[in-house]
Amino acid sequence: MQPAAATLFAKLWEPHVVTSRPDGRTLLFIDRHLLHDGSFHAFARLREKGIPVAHAELCLATPDHYVPTDAGRSLAMVKDPTVLRVLRDFESNTAAAGVQAFTLGDARQGIVHVVGPEQGFTLPGVTLVCGDSHTSTHGALGALAFGIGASEVAHVLATQCLWQLPPRTMRVLIEGRLAPGVYAKDLALAFIRAIGTSGATGHVVEYAGDGVRGLTIEQRCTLCNMTIEAGAKAGFVGPDDVTFAYLEGRPLAPKGDAWKAAVAYWRTLVTEEGALFDREIALDAGKITPMVTWGTSPEQAIAIDGYVPDLRDARDDDERKGMASALAYMGLASGQPITDAAIDQVFIGSCTNSRIEDLRIVADVVRRIGGRARVPTLVSPGSGAVKRQAEAEGLAATFVAAGLEWREAGCSMCVGMNGETVAPQKRCVSTSNRNFAGRQGRDARTHLVSPATAAATAMLGRLVDVRTVL
Fold it and tell me: In angstroms, rounded to a whole number, what is the distance separating the alpha carbons of residues 382 and 110?
């Protein structure tokens, strides 16, 4: 009897199994551990128990959540005492453990999910964890990457292993190509709308098909980043020549003969023909249009030229109540064109859309429309490397000339910290990943969109179908 055809997930999971228990829980070896400034809880737990960090060489750290993006790149410029304490703890914890850290004064500092891929720390075939839910981003490079809680961060620091239940598998087959003016963010929102925010619960998602192969690594990062918003544990794309070209020469990627050996292994990380999945979904990328959320969940999304849903179209009473609550919070009415919503400000950034390709798209839209931004707009690059490249390419100059506020790297308005928030009942168009009530500030109203739609909104002062601009 021939062995069953293997999925990519099986090829990522099985080599990392240390042992399994009768209840099904599996002890996985973790190849890569990303840490950010919120990891102080885990370090404190290890100190209390007198446990050292087991494998500092497998960790990489950078502060992002607590970092003020207007404070420059030194601790001396941080005025909030709580934030200052967290950032100092980050530096002392990583230094004491021997963990490589891109501290606030380091030009490589940035959002952890941007820094990992751009440094070549994220590699195909590895297991990678981080104390942040959007760790699924790294699956764009063919890694099995997922977020973990504070106690699990401590467990990985102490043992380099983690107990996990094997998830179910889902393949999302995407055929066709995205039309001009439609981007990976629109694809992600369309997928989440199709299956709901719990549609992938308990699953890992493999994205496959020509529609995925045609995406750049940075676009794949956006798609995998948003997978968690569908309830999935992880999302990933099989590595290919696009992956290898992106990684070659990165600071922490293999070199020389080690690179050749790595690529030879990475080419085996594919789902074999005939492999079975617990669930399969098909999407036609060519039918997707620019998307925008109207409610307080990423699944509450519609086409940019669409209308706020009618409560009478709800599938049941529970959905109707949820829709009514979201409409009340967002200050919208059933049936109104979503483009009629008055916009107060725009945020361009976050681990979803702050990479150099995102900023190039924003700059292109800004130049096409011309003039000055109609609403206050904050642009925060994903890392110091992205910031320098955007400045070298003239993107930052375009933003500043158009009246957009050009900031330093950090999570910024996505997490609503350091005063980088949206005022109560004000409406923000955002390239981030979550539009939950209060996410960007108390009673703040968030509409999730692509970088291109965000840029057009900034320049025109209203939600607009960016295809009419392009």
Answer: 6
User: Which pLDDT band, with edges at 50, 70 and 90, does 1 fall under?
Assistant: low
pLDDT, residue 335, reads 95
CATH of domain 8-164: 3.30.499.10
Name the CATH superfamily for 168-238+256-287: Aconitase, Domain 2 (3.40.1060.10)
Instruction: Tell me: pLDDT of 74 over 60.
Output: yes
Do 293-468 and 8-164 have the same topology in CATH? yes
- How high is the pLDDT of residue 374? 98
Strand (E) positions, 54-167?
59-61, 100-101, 127-130, 144-147, 161-164
Q: Whole-prediction pTM value?
A: 0.97
Percent of the chain at pLDDT above 90?
95
Contact status, residue 12 vs residue 269, Cβ threshold 8 Å: yes
Report domain extents, the chain.
Answer: 8-164, 168-238+256-287, 293-468
Q: What is the dihedral of CA 219, 220, 221, 227, to 10 degrees?
A: 120
Q: Are 378 and 399 in contact (CB under 8 A)?
A: no
